[in-house]
Specification:
Distance between the termini: 46 Å
Radius of gyration: 17 Å
Number of strands: 2
Structural class: mainly alpha
Bound molecules: heme C
CATH class: Mainly Alpha
Number of helices: 11
Largest sheet: 2 strands, antiparallel
Helix content: 40-55%
Length: 209
C-alpha cells in the first residue's frame, strides 16, 4: 500500500465507512427504557445547551446508524462535549443500537425536492446530504429541519477541529462564516424534517412524516 492509499484507508475508517461488525438486531422496546434520561434534553422542543448557547439537536427522524456513530464520537472524544461524553460512556454497543432504533422513530426518506434555492456552497454537500437534507447513506446525517443554530455550531466545530472527522473537517475548512450561515438556513428549512424526540414518544415518528 502506498502511504497515500494507507492514509485514505485510515481516514475512510475514521469516517465510519468501514463495514460494521456483527451486532445483534436492535431492540427499540429496550431502547425506549434506556432513552429515558435522553428525553430530558432531546425530548424538550427548543431546549438549549448552555455556554455556548445553541439548540440541542433533534434526533427524531435521524438515521439510527448515524446516531450510533455520533454516540461513539462523544465516547472517544472525537466530539468534545462534557455532557454527551458522560452519557455515551455509560452505554454499551448494544445499548447504543437499541436507543438509536427507538429515538430515530421513522427515518426521513429522500424526497428529491428542495425548499428554496440551493446555496452555491452546498454544491459539494448534496453528494452526501442530498438537496433535501436527507443523508444518502445511513451513516450520513439527515440535516433537514435540524435547528439552524445547531447546524452552524456543528460546522464551526468541524472547521476549528473541536469536532474531529476526516470527511467533514476537509469540507468545513473551505467554508466562510457567510457560507455557514447560508448552509444552516437552507438545510434547516427543508421539509419533511427532523423532530425533537417528544414526538417519537407520543407518535413513534415525527409529526411532519
Ligand atoms: C443535558 C442534556 C442532554 C442529555 C441528558 C443528553 N443529551 Fe445528547 N446532546 C446534547 C447536546 C447539547 C448535544 C450537542 C453536542 C454537540 O455540540 O456536539 C447532544 C448531541 C447528541 C447526539 C448527536 C446528534 C447529532 O445530530 O449529531 C446524539 C446522537 C445524542 N446527543 C444522543 C443522546 C442520547 C442517546 C442521550 C441519552 C443516553 C442523550 N443524548 C442525552 C444534550 C443532551
Ligand atoms: C463525503 C460525504 C459528505 C460530504 C460531501 C459532506 N458531508 Fe457533512 N457529514 C458527513 C458525515 C459522514 C458526517 C458525520 C461526521 C461525524 O461523525 O461527526 C457529516 C456531518 C455533518 C454535519 C453534522 C450533523 C449533526 O447532526 O451533527 C453537518 C451540519 C454537515 N455534515 C453539513 C455538511 C455540509 C454543509 C456539507 C457541504 C459543505 C457537507 N456536510 C458535506 C458526510 C459528508
Amino acid at each position: 500500500m502506498t502511504s497515500r492509499s494507507a492514509w485514505l484507508a485510515v481516514s475512510l475508517t475514521i469516517a465510519g465507512f468501514a463495514l460494521p461488525g456483527p451486532a445483534a438486531a436492535a431492540d427499540a422496546a429496550r431502547g425506549e427504557k434506556l432513552a429515558y434520561t435522553c428525553q430530558g434534553c432531546h425530548g424538550i422542543p427548543n431546549y438549549k445547551n448552555a455556554y455556548p448557547i445553541y439548540s440541542v439537536p433533534k434526533l427524531g427522524g435521524q438515521h439510527a446508524a448515524y446516531l450510533v456513530i455520533a454516540l461513539k464520537g462523544y465516547a472517544s472524544t472525537e466530539r468534545a462535549h462534557p455532557t454527551m461524553l458522560s452519557q455515551a460512556t455509560t452505554l454499551s454497543e448494544q445499548d447504543m443500537q437499541d436507543i438509536a432504533a427507538y429515538l430515530s422513530g421513522q427515518e426521513l426518506k429522500p424526497t428529491g425536492k428542495s425548499v428554496g434555492t440551493l446555496p452555491k456552497a452546498a454544491q459539494t454537500c448534496v453528494a452526501c446530504h442530498g438537496p433535501d437534507g436527507v443523508g444518502i447513506l445511513p451513516e450520513y446525517p439527515n440535516l433537514a429541519g435540524q435547528h439552524e443554530d445547531y447546524i452552524r455550531h456543528a460546522l464551526a466545530a468541524y472547521r476549528s477541529g473541536q469536532r474531529k472527522n476526516a470527511v467533514m473537517g476537509g469540507m468545513a475548512t473551505a467554508l466562510t462564516d457567510e457560507d455557514i450561515r447560508e448552509l444552516a438556513r437552507y438545510y434547516s428549512s427543508q421539509r419533511p424534517g427532523l423532530c425533537s424526540t417528544d414526538e417519537i414518544r407520543q407518535l413513534g415518528k415525527c409529526k411532519g412524516l
